[in-house]
Automatic annotation (TrEMBL):
It comes from Lysinibacillus parviboronicapiens. Gene3D superfamilies: Histidine kinase-like ATPase, C-terminal domain. The chain crosses the membrane at residues 12-33, 111-132, 144-161, 167-194, 206-223, 229-252, 264-286, 298-317, 329-349, 355-375. Keywords: ATP-binding, Kinase, Membrane, Nucleotide-binding, Transferase, Transmembrane, Transmembrane helix, Two-component regulatory system. This is Two-component system sensor histidine kinase ComP.
Amino acid sequence: MSKLTCSIFITYLLLGIYALVIAIQTPFIGILVDTANGQPVIVKSYYTDWAQQQNIEKGDILLTIDGQLAEEKIMEGKSHIFRSAKELSIKKANGVIHSIKIKHTDIPEELFVHIVFPLLYFLLSFGVAIFLWKRPKENQITNLLTLFLLTCSLAYTSIGASSRGDIIGKMVIGYCIVFCLVLFIHFLQHYFYYLHIKWPSFHSKWLYLLPILLTCCYLMEFVDSRFNQITPIVILGLFGILVLYALAILITSYIRTQSVKIRLIAIALIIPFLPFLLLFVVPEILHYPPILPAEFTALFLLFIPFSFIFIQVNERLFDIEYQLSRFRYYCALAFFSALILTLGISIFLVEQLSFTLLTAIVALIFIVNLASFYVKEQLDFKHRKVIFSSNGDYVHNLYAAVNRMGKAKNQQELLARFTYEITEKLGTTAFTIETISQHVPLSRGEINTRNQTTQLLLYDTADEKIVLLISQTLQKEELLWLELLALYVSMFMDSLKLIEDLVLDIQHMKVTNETQLPWLDKLLWNIIEKEKSILAQELHDTILQEQLHLARELDVLAGSSTIQGEKVRAIREQLLNATKDLREYCENLSPPLLDTFGLQIALKKLVQKVNIRANFLLNTQIERVHFQDLSLHLVVYRLVQELLNNAIKHAEATEVSLRLVAIEHGFELHYDDNGIGCDIEDLMKSSASMGINGIRERVRAFNGHISIISKPNEGMHINIKIQEEGEKIND
């Protein structure tokens, strides 16, 4: 852990613990008094329910607080609000003196909002920060997000200390409210650069001047007491401006790019601030009573740690998008049902329910309904599979149908399987599949319904068209199922056509040449020999040299008159190391984790091995990549393997960076080191170019693009981009 990281965590712990201790020492009561007549007369209590339970009424005279006269405390504090106390004594209108001892448990709202929730949020945020710090993907983006999380946590944790008038608590919550959004906008700028999206605003470094403005406000409080009312307005105003500024950046950028990641960031990290902004900050700035107290609106900040875990751990955006769409659907249903039920309750209890209680009822019903929808989904899937099966919905039948048709070996068999699916699913034989040569005014997969006849174009070439004709009216759901299935049939036909043409070409060449296709044999032989050459060079430079060294050691030992046990054990240890190296070569030839656990796990294992062997600092950032062509997973693994091997053998670097980025239909691989570098032309002429040439040939074989930039003593920078066949490469 670096000194800066250590100091940040220590500062976070000290300030958070201090704020919690201040909140725990004395309960918060928030009693407003009027001293116009020389005596502190109670006007209002922050917790009305507690005041009623303790028989504290408007007009009662406040005598003592924690054993001191109330008048003295007013003179000392120059305030008409008593924020916290352990013991009170009041004088009723009839002259009776009433003593009250106060505990946190007497005021459950204060206990949970000022102590329990802040404590949980404080610990949870610290745990998430440690988790993010230990992840191997640590970079500036993650560091900024971690700092943003910690400042949000400190702001919420300091609510109790600030409410009690503690100066440190007030300053911590003031700085953190502004500084957390500055950090968030700074993170956005770096994240946009990472996504190769143009930053639409000025550089975020200028926002770090805002805490200086707050410092001036706090200093002015010591000079002029009027700034005690101005500073909170300044803080809340800056908070509102920064939230709206961040939202404007996210919304405009999402409209321009339609990036799912930007939308996810907005939902996960900005929306928790909106209740605090709309229900507390805006009314406070406009000098209206807050719709909800700050303690309750700030509870939405608890969503932020879970959002962090979700964003960092779950890297599969398709799964994220699916979960979000389902969550939006269930939220809409739960919200409207909660609103209707609450309206029904309020009709009968309109005089007994406050606005805060109605809001709590809406929230409770909403959460219960939302949880019920998820529970129902799991129960339906377990006990009523017909809802999810092909018999219950035509669209859900697609997977089974496509799986069956995908086993066809030729076009005739494919059409036969397609005929079977139509007969089984649509329950009709009133259809024909015709091969015609004349023009059809349809595109592939397009359906045209006319005169109770459905026409669908399955396949078309310059010479022939395959058309499906159904003499029956189909329902919308049946048409959707048929259209989607026809698209798969069309793609299968393209693939089968290519395979059939290739087989015919090979058969023709075999018949005409009466030999075993020498061009194919030569190609395969060259590939095999090249791989043998690479393996031979690797074995020669490592294990063979080690074996020769051990042989010389044994010769010396054999000529000795005495057997040295320590020497024999050393040779045995070296033999075991050589065996380990040989095992690693076998794993490199056929990485077992790649087929068993996938590319992501295989690359992580490879990086762990390199970290053990290498004498440089390796920074990696590996995104999940998905390909239709499964061979590309092995290509990615080999490219990463070769780049890291070259770094170990030739780079002489102290820092190496490797970044695998998923792009549409492919990937980009970025390699950078600060090593000795080289002249590219001289490298290609030397024996050290074997690894680089291997990388270039692998990239070229998959129609990819590679750029290599290097100069002596300036390191090496390699960028590789490969997309699956059918996609254009922008060099």
